[in-house]
Amino acid sequence: MKFFRILSCFIIFTFAVVLPTHAKDMVVKEPPKSLSQFYPPESKEPKWIQQMHKLSTHFGGVFINLKEKDFANVDKHADQLLEEYKKTSKMVPEWKDYFDIKAAEAFTQAAKTHDIAKAGKASGGLGKTCGKCHAEQEVSVWAQFHWPRFHKIKVTDPITEKEMGFDDYMSTISSSFKGVTVNFGEGQYGRSAKALKIFKSRFMEMKSTCSKCHTTDDVKLFYVGKIAESAFDNLAKELNAEKPNPGQFWKNVGLLGKTGCKHCHLTHRTASFIQETWEKE
């Protein structure tokens, strides 16, 4: 029973390190320029995130091996954690205040007592340093270095055959979509059917655009796959019917909006907004 109380204490401290961010602490500001040297294209490898993985591995290694009573590896991970922590503290000068070498040394010493309760207690001080940096910088770093920049993507419009920026192409798709829905709402089914062909052509071109990042079939067709194809077929069927069914029409419009547009926006749009804001400053 005592062991499980100790283990519960360890779990609490572990989560304090891994999940420290609260809404009131969240800050989204552009990362320092010096961080760029640790990410492509300035670096061949994403060295900063690799460093974070090293710290996480050694921290976790301490507790895993304490639980398994593998004290030789406890000491090994404790020493390597301290070494990598010191190294990390010097990588980005603007972030030096996020690091507390004494807290890292205290954790290493506690880990080497091979007492999981002492190690768990000492991890709290170390966790605060990690947590503060994550709360203030993690979202920004991911937005800056891990998400593609959509506004730099060029798309060839299949209707006009002209190349345009991604944002302009999204506006063109939106305009085509409104041509379908506005005309349908006015009872102009022929015009709506004509607009649907244009909208479908532009919407499904995203298969090619998405493939620039989404290279596997399952992923690249997530937004423009079978559901989208089926929805377009059903929309065309309704618009070519003698008396279109509004319920079926709007149902399939909803399928396109929810499985295509909305899911893509939920995944990518926030990061894109952040990136564009920084570049305009």
Key structural traits:
2 strands, 68% helix, two-stranded antiparallel ribbon, elongated, 11 helices, 281 residues, mainly alpha, disordered N terminus, 2 domains
DSSP strand content: under 5%
Order of helices and strands: HHHHHEEHHHHHH
Sheet with the most strands? Answer: 2 strands, antiparallel
Span between termini: 57 Å
The strand line-up of the biggest sheet is 1-2
**Tally of individual domains:** 2
Which residues sit in consecutive blocks of at least 5 with pLDDT less than 50? 1-21
State the helicity in percent bands: 55-70%
- The chain-level mean pLDDT equals 87
Number of strands: 2
Shape: elongated
Continuous helix count: 11
Radius of gyration: 26 Å
* Class of secondary structure makeup: mainly alpha
